[in-house]
Amino acid sequence: MWNWATHPITWLSFLAMLIGAVVILLLTLVVVMYSIYWQRKLIGWMQLRIGPNRVGPFGLLQSAADVLKLLIKEDVIPTKSDRVLFLIAPIIAFVPAFMALSVIPFSRTHVFTANIAIGALFYVALSAITIHGVMLGGWASNNKYALIGSMRSAAQMLSYEIPLGLSIVGVVLMAGSINLNDIVNAQAHSGWWYIIPQILGFVVFMVASTAELNRTPFDLPEAESELVGGYHTEYTGFRFAFFMLTEYVYLFAMAGLFATLFLGGWSGPFLPGWLWFAIKAFLYISVQFWIQATMPRMRVDQLMTFSWKVLLPLALVNLVVTAVLKAVL
Amino acid sequence: MSLSEGTPQLRTEEMLLNVGPQHPSTHGVFRLVVKISGETVVEAEPVIGYLHRGTEKLAEDLQYTQIIPYTDRLDYIAAMLNNYALCHAVEEAMDMEIPERAEYLRVIIMEMQRIASHLLFIGTYLLDLGAMSPFLYVFVERERIVELFNEISGARLTYNFMRIGGLRFDAPEGWLDKVRKLVPEMREQMKMYADLISGNEIFLNRVKGLGTFTAEDALAYGMSGINLRSTGFKWDLRKNKPYSIYDRFDFDVPVGKNGDCFDRYYLHLAEMEQSVRIIEQALESIPEGPILGKVPKFVRVPAGEYYSGIEGARGELGFYIVSDGKDKPYRLKIRKPSFVNLQMLPKLLQGQNMANVIAILGAVDIVLGEVDA
Question: Most B CBs within 10 Å: which of A47, A228, A299, A300, as the mutation test of the B interface?
């Protein structure tokens, strides 16, 4: 099998890598565009609305029109903001979210993504960097709402990164490897997806990942009704779009991680691997949208309490039980 | 100073935060200057007046009938009730006879309006708490009521429908049947709200025990309506000082227990059910007949001072008329429930978290058109 990590770097392989990165970026952008479309459609149905249906057939070009609109909007930078940080914050937020995708095994053949030994660790480490962009953005805006929003998101990230990591460890214990591809293979060979033996870990993962993604009911950093948009209050046009993009890329990345860890990634009968992967990721994304349409927002102190007093013990219990079962069986 | 010598005085810098006048959760142009330490409110000061139009002053230049459209713009969520409050005040001052059918129609319309207003409260309150779907669900029902209002009055928001001495128009053909059809469906819908919202764990955790005050407090601040009733104090002008024909109907006055935000939310739901009951009874016994009583060409209130209040959607809505016997009021003072209810806000907000500020403000249920008048 082709492996980026072991292949010597030549001009040709470098070119291939570059093309690969661009292809994945384009793919991601398309996924983001249409997950936004799907969000509006799905929530539209739940809320007895129609959703976008004007731009293109079934409103399919709505997202393209939105992007165009954001592109031509005035780019406002507040006078008293920290200009440099303000400009680079969205990029700092976006890059790691996109990079995290590089280790997700989209298909059996592993085209364009890296099959590295520390996949899960790499993913968790990178996903924690996004928060720097959010924090810097909030700080640099020199806006009180943005500041509160970014501080909240930092606290939230600190609280939820731990149960999230621990819930992943359960799966790692089961598979006996931290390589994401090995985890998929282990599930394919064992004949069951880890969502069944790791049901507790799955619950913890689901809740913690929702919080990591800043999605309802944990969308405190944005909290429109309290903080007017939180950390991106001062951002306009394409810089704002970058934050949005980050959010949805991260959503896609999290969906990929979910599919890989708990639903056996690309493995599945009849259909090609990438399609299985897409179906499973789609499932996660749809559940996120469903939750968004259902839940009100939690309060910041309740959020912290929930993480430290409920999720963390649950994750630890899951870990211990998994370890014991693994040793006994 | 070493740590053993006593607790060092650590203090975070306080920050002044302007919530509003343009903020998604102030429900209009309302400004709340909050001094926060971290996310805890040290001090909150409501600043009003961004929407002030001087309605009371304007009224001094207008004939009584001409004031009616102005009342629409006060509490624009419940314009019919405001229409009625003015007409009722003038009618009482003039000791006017109102035809039966007009009274029945008025009651039906007012209770529909109360439901429409409460629906909007529930929707916007949940929106304040970060849930969007209920907001859109309530609009389905509100839309049906507003459409019926459109049929009877020709307007969707500012109806200008009630007249001194009765009503401008009778219900168009089939209108009452449409209301009859709507009533059971509204009941169904209310069950849905109860399922969707009242049982939601996150919602309960957010609002239970939040922003509590006692009946004594509420009375001291002159609160009325659901804000007062949430403390367990049973006071509803429809029962305690019956006006119109409310004494003919059988309905309850739901009261809360704890005086918290949850009670205030829940009372809105409970009151809608009572309103549905009233509408049902009124529909059963509505008589035929004229809809406008004998009204002089120029409405002249005899010299003197008059006050009459009704149970508005947000509390006691009263018109105080000082008349010198002419066809215009010498002075008109409106007792605006939102304005009075708002007064306790600084006290309620002190020591709260930013997220609670929005939850408490939302539950007080203000309409800025009325606060500023």
Answer: A299
